[in-house]
Recover the amino acids of this structure.
């Protein structure tokens, strides 16, 4: 009896446990799943608030509050340089013109040794205080005192900055250097009455910016997102029509692209693969893009301090072996075109010299001519199907690129294929950015892909491609001219350019530079980089497009304030939009 | 007590070794912070900017060994230096922002996975050859073989992108106000489902298998038979007698797992753009931000060492044998 009761008791408890544990588990899982699915299904992607422009330019996982426009190394730079603070003149890279902004005019005096700039009247800082030429002089003085703030190297050519009166300031040059105008024009100006009390402007994080730009009010700041509201005192009457800028923190290009596709972003500057299918086709009425070719030209740099690339015939032969049509197809989804022989991107379109373009016959795809040039240079075919040099050594080189920069890697692969056809063996060597950049800067490479430097005139561009004074010894760090090419002809023209303030004269000199480039082939141009710009035309009107090309459409063009042209021109769709979009582009030539 | 002191000494030594490695390893990378930052702009910044950057960061030329001692001194004072990637914010401020989220993500994933995995392990061993035992271990082992971030990407694609059930990233939506309110907490939970879920799925198998195997062994022990013979209830035998002892290897593993989960959650965070340490670390490596890298590694090291120390204490409580041998 007793035993039987015990057994029964054990069994029921056993059954209870047997049922209890899985039942609780299953129930818990079901509840969790249901909760999740319910909240998940009822969730709709909330529409973005009207009038708030959501921008993605910089890829960050979280924002750190810093609105210092002078330090080079600050996070959250985009709106700081192109929305909060403003420069004197904005260079419009589509029209190649300087648009007067905080300044209204300039004048070269004393044989181009003094630049006199007239500032705009009626401009006020966002705290209501008037903006004067004194603020301009103060900003440059600050950069003199703290070289870390002198991002564009202005004090390498300036001697002094003198305040003439409340709306006139004079820049005295240490040497003849007219291209310095571009650097002065692009400088973001800070208010003297705030910054004179800042102890260390280099580490100043400027959390409540006082500025002249259209968006100065930090309405919201969280690590994932921040918002900038309008400047109540903005000097352009009735602008901006956009109520606020919102910057979500998106850590990667992929993530930003997802946000674009799902209408979480109004304006972005990402690389989007197959954009017509991935982005535009999802919502053709709202999704649009324009990729003008105003980015820096991408080059194949051949180290001219190494044999055989010291021979111009070899450099031209390498160039002729490249099928650039295939290259832009494979590497860039046809977003770009083969570079022309002057290597100038479309930002310099008005400078292009048709004669020089015609004379540069070495950027086409012509294997026979490449072979003929190599034969002429004395590189005979070896037994294994590759050419050999005078000592019988096979021509065998590495092409350096950066791992993860897939456009460059694919471009390098196309190049190796072309080189094989002319008897040069080349292999693609990808490296982490740091190691790649170090080798390139030190001149420790055979061939490498690389960017080029932009600027308002072709002066900067060509200087860093072939000026003697940019050539550093192999083994020492060179910020540009990594292929280490010196052209006495270019030196002469560049020097003349430094003293030439007349636009017509500059144009002639720029043509001479192009002739020097196409004759000497110091570097091998591949393609001009597109300026990436995607936007939501369903929510905002007034983005620059191929039909209305009033400015560069990319948010990436912030360093010189160019995005301000777009920001002041956008109109939310909900409001009465007249569609005319030309205010920012009218350059008041003085 | 001596046991605890001995363990503490060991952790101090381990901490010092980790600090030293933290200092030297990042510095073996080629390049410097200025050029790395320069790189992000791909030519949009003029060459002159490089000089300005070097000036800004005040890159020092002092010998490495001197830098090392300065670094040790600063760390002892709680000064982790200034971040270069987020100049001029102190590393501590930068890390603070992300730490909460990483702790939330890794912590909840670890606890959920540990609890569910261990319970399933107990169940599988108790009802050997039953349904749970034949299904759960192989399935979880299979899922555990996939890397976290791969599962994360698949989950993001299916549930986030295709079905749109869950947000595509971030820790909370921009629309809600952070704070202690229901809407915010629900929103955070919804954003955490996919990242936490993928880590749980990837790690649950380990707990399950360890627990099941030890449990099977323990169930064969004499004292378990004795407990059964005494007529104790099966739940009491299973949980208080068998499971408590079977738990010891799992608890030891818990401390180790914290390190792996922290490391793995970094990748998960990147996939879901979760604002934790994961992306910070990537950013730090890309920018050659030594101070930030060291700071993040330091936090991970401290977390793992701290967790192991707690585990030591817990096993002291769980396992009387340790108490006896050390006293």
């Amino acid at each position: 009896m007793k035993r039987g009761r015990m057994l029964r008791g054990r069994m029921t408890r056993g059954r209870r446990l047997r049922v209890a544990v899985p039942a609780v588990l299953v129930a818990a899982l079901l509840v969790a799943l249901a909760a999740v699915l319910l909240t998940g299904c009822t969730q709709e992607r909330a529409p973005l608030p009207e009038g708030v422009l959501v921008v993605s330019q910089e890829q960050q996982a979280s924002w750190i509050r810093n609105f210092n426009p002078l330090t080079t190394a600050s996070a959250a730079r985009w709106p700081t340089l192109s929305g909060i603070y403003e420069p004197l003149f904005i260079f419009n890279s589509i029209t190649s013109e300087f648009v007067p902004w905080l300044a209204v005019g300039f004048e070269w005096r004393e044989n181009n040794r003094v630049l006199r700039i007239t500032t705009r009247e009626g401009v006020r800082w966002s705290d209501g205080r008037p903006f004067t030429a004194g603020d301009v002089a103060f900003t440059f003085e600050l950069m003199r005192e703290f070289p870390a703030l002198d991002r564009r190297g202005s004090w390498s050519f300036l001697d002094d900055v003198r305040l003439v009166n409340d709306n006139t300031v004079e820049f005295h040059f240490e040497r003849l250097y007219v291209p310095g105008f571009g650097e002065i024009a692009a400088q973001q100006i800070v208010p003297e009455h705030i910054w004179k009390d800042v102890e260390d402007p280099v580490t100043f994080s400027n959390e409540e910016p006082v500025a002249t730009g259209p968006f100065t009010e930090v309405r919201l700041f969280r690590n994932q997102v921040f918002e900038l509201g309008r400047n109540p005192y903005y000097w352009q009457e009735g602008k901006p029509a956009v109520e606020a800028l919102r910057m979500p923190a998106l850590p990667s290009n992929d993530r930003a692209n997802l946000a674009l596709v799902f209408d979480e972003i109004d304006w972005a500057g990402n690389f989007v693969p197959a954009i017509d299918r991935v982005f535009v086709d999802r919502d053709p009425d709202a999704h649009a893009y324009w990729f003008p070719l105003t980015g820096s030209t991408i080059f194949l740099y051949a180290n001219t301090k190494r044999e055989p690339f010291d021979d111009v015939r070899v450099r031209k032969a390498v160039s002729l072996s490249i099928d650039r049509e295939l290259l832009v197809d494979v590497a860039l989804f046809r977003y770009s075109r083969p570079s022309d022989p002057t290597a100038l991107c479309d930002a310099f379109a008005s400078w292009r010299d048709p004669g020089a373009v015609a004379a540069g016959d070495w950027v086409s795809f012509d294997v026979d001519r490449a072979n003929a040039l190599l034969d002429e240079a004395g590189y005979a075919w070896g037994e294994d199907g590759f050419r050999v040099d005078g000592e019988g050594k096979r021509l065998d080189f590495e092409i350096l690129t950066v791992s993860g920069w897939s456009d460059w890697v694919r471009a390098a692969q196309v190049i190796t294929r072309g080189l094989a056809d002319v008897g040069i063996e080349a292999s693609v060597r990808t490296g982490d950015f740091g190691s790649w950049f170090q080798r390139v800067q030190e001149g420790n490479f055979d061939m490498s892909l690389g960017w080029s430097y932009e600027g308002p005139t072709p002066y900067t561009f060509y200087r860093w491609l072939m000026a003697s004074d940019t050539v550093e010894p192999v083994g020492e760090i060179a910020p540009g001219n990594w292929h280490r090419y010196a052209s006495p002809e270019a030196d002469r023209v560049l020097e003349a350019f430094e003293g030439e303030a007349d636009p017509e004269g500059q144009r002639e000199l720029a043509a001479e530079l192009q002739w020097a480039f196409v004759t000497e082939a110091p570097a091998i141009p591949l393609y001009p980089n597109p300026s990436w710009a995607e936007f939501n035309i369903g929510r905002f009107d007034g983005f620059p497009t191929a039909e209305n090309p009033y400015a560069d459409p990319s948010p990436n063009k912030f360093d010189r304030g160019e995005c301000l042209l777009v920001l002041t021109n956008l109109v939310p769709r909900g409001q009465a939009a007249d569609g005319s979009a030309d205010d920012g582009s009218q350059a008041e030539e003085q | 007590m001596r046991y605890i002191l001995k363990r503490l000494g060991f952790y101090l030594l381990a901490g010092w070794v980790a600090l030293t490695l933290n200092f030297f390893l990042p510095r073996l990378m080629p390049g410097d912070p200025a050029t790395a930052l320069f790189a992000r702009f791909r030519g949009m910044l003029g060459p002159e900017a490089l000089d300005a950057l070097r000036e800004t960061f005040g890159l020092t030329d002092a010998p490495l060994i001197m830098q090392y001692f300065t670094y040790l001194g600063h760390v002892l004072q709680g000064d982790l230096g200034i971040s270069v990637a987020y100049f001029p914010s102190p590393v501590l401020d930068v890390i603070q922002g992300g730490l909460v989220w990483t702790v939330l993500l890794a912590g909840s994933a670890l606890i959920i996975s540990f609890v569910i995995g261990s319970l399933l392990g107990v169940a599988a061993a108790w009802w050997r050859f039953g349904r749970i035992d034949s299904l759960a271990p192989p399935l979880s082992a299979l899922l555990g073989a996939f890397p976290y971030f791969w599962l994360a990407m698949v989950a993001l694609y299916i549930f986030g992108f295709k079905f749109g059930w869950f947000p595509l990233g971030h820790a909370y939506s921009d629309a809600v106000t952070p704070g202690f309110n229901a809407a915010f907490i629900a929103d955070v939970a919804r954003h955490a489902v996919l990242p936490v879920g993928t880590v749980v799925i990837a790690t649950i198998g380990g707990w399950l298998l360890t627990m099941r195997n030890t449990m099977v062994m323990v169930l064969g022990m004499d004292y378990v038979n004795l407990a059964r013979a005494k007529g104790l209830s099966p739940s009491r035998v299973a949980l208080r007698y068998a499971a408590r002892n079977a738990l010891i290897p799992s608890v030891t593993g818990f401390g180790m797992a914290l390190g792996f989960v922290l490391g793995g959650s970094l990748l998960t965070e990147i996939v879901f753009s979760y604002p934790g340490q994961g992306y910070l670390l990537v950013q730090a490596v890309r920018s050659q931000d030594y101070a930030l890298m060291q700071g993040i590694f330091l936090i991970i090291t401290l977390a793992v060492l701290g967790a192991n120390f707690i585990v030591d204490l817990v096993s002291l409580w769980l396992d009387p044998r340790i108490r006896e041998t050390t006293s």
Remarks:
- The longest strand of chain A covers residues 158-165.
- DSSP finds 17 helices and 20 strands in chain A.
- Residues 1-19, 40-44, 576-590 of chain A have pLDDT under 50 and may be disordered.
- Residues 2-42 of chain A form the longest helix (41 residues).
